[in-house]
Design brief:
3 strands; elongated
């Protein structure tokens, strides 16, 4: 039996963190009523619940809506089942218990749970989500913070991006009836 089978609930929490980019304290503070599982599933992040502290505002002090991938929507549907809107959504866990259940120290390659937030943000950018939208989803105070993630995208992202530019330019060339390459000598 794998660790995922033994600790499905803990593995599901990790999946939520890795896909939503929520801070640990924000995930711990989610209520069932914060989840929208309709046509456009999302969570409304309004507060944080740091371990050993009372419920507070998010780091930026602002609320935000974070859309959910289909797999995370299913996980959260399961977490919400049979609960009232004011109940905590996620199973009550401490970071140390979660990491112990998942043998995190042995399997994470020295990464932290917070690194799952970075994973989500980088994945959004790799998928082509614009930086301003990523900023909103991540709850960053400004674009400068979000822009720090763009250097992680690498050559594969460069190739995909230039392919998009080539498609755009090709469409423009077709629309204006030219495919001629312009060089300094023919201007």
């Amino acid at each position: 039996m794998s660790w995922k089978e033994r600790h499905q609930q803990a593995a599901s929490v990790v999946l939520v963190l890795a896909r939503t980019g929520l801070r640990w304290s924000e995930a711990r503070a989610l209520l069932v009523g914060d989840v929208e599982l309709g046509e456009h599933p999302s969570v409304m992040v309004t507060k944080a619940r740091p371990e050993g502290h009372t419920v507070s505002t998010t780091k930026s002090g602002k609320s935000r809506r974070v859309p959910l991938t289909a797999d995370v929507a299913e996980v959260l549907r399961g977490f919400a089942e049979g609960k009232c809107p004011d109940d905590l959504l996620m199973p009550p866990m401490h970071r140390s218990r979660l990491t112990q259940q998942l043998a995190w120290a042995e399997t994470s390659g020295e990464r932290t749970l917070h690194d799952l937030r970075h994973t989500a943000i980088c994945n959004w950018l790799r998928a082509g989500v614009d930086v301003a939208t990523v900023r909103e989803w991540a709850g960053h105070a400004d674009l400068v913070m979000t822009s720090r993630y763009t250097h992680y995208l690498g050559l594969a992202h460069d190739a995909l991006s230039i392919d998009k530019v080539n498609q755009l330019v090709s469409g423009i060339n077709e629309a204006v009836g030219t495919s001629q390459v312009h060089t300094a000598s023919n201007f």
